[in-house]
Design goal:
By secondary structure, the protein is an all-alpha fold. Helix 3 runs antiparallel to helix 8. The longest helix is centred in the first third of the chain and has 29 residues.
Length: 230
């Protein structure tokens, strides 16, 4: 049982690794908005599977649901940061990206509080607790269709300049936005001469070795600094 539940807990991270690894390919092929919408469907399905596990008397459903939640979370983190950053005006871009981390932490806190035995962590309500992760996904699935696709994606990947201008006007209002469009065009020209490294190529590249060591060390020590206890 200990081994089984250890796998159930850790399989979330395995799904997250797979989801984040495939995020770049999916965003280039389908766009950030479509990927987020499909990702919401995946999370709702995962929540439904876990919520029905007690009725079905199947622990395997919890295992499958946790894995699907991990894939969804792995996709969502880079997708959400990119989409929010690209649809925000330049002067609000830093603030918009910082709100992602804030709500990520707030969501974990709400989940831990809701998991107390006095609330949804009781013997009768825990399936509802596991299914609750589908509620934010449902909210985004309903509201996201009213937002346009990312303007940089429309211009850089699709070459749709008119669609890019329309999306910018919808997001930022009427006005002169030619400077932002010119910046996207400059970025597109720069990307043509830049090789995008895969994860394996990044690990093998000697020029990035010390930066990679630093990032790994910082990320690992975050887990040891007591922030989870706080």
């Amino acid at each position: 049982l200990l081994f089984l539940w250890s796998i159930t807990v850790s399989i979330f991270g395995i799904g997250g690794l797979l989801g984040s690894s495939g995020s770049r390919y999916l965003t280039v092929k389908f766009g950030k908005k479509k990927c987020l919408l499909c990702n919401n469907v995946l999370m709702i399905v995962a929540a439904s599977i876990m919520g029905c596990s007690k009725i079905s008397q199947s622990f395997e459903m919890i295992l499958i649901g946790r894995f699907m939640c991990g894939v969804s979370a792995g996709l969502c983190v880079p997708l959400h940061h990119q989409y929010v950053g690209e649809i925000s005006p330049r002067k609000l871009r830093g603030f918009a990206n910082s709100t992602s981390s804030f709500f990520w932490t707030l969501g974990k806190a709400i989940g831990q509080i809701s998991g107390q035995r006095e609330l949804l962590g009781s013997q009768s309500l825990w399936p509802m607790l596991m299914a609750s992760c589908g509620l934010p996904a449902l909210v985004q699935l309903v509201t996201l269709p009213f937002f346009p696709e990312s303007p940089p994606y429309l211009l850089m990947q699709k070459g749709d300049q008119e669609g890019c201008k329309k999306a910018i006007r919808q997001l930022w209002g009427e006005g002169q936005h030619q400077a932002e469009i010119d910046d996207i065009m400059k970025e597109k020209a720069t990307m043509k001469n830049t090789k995008i490294l895969s994860v394996l190529e990044l690990v093998k590249e000697p020029a990035f070795r010390w930066q990679l060591y630093m990032i790994v060390t910082l990320t690992a020590t975050i887990q040891l600094c007591g922030i989870n206890a706080v």
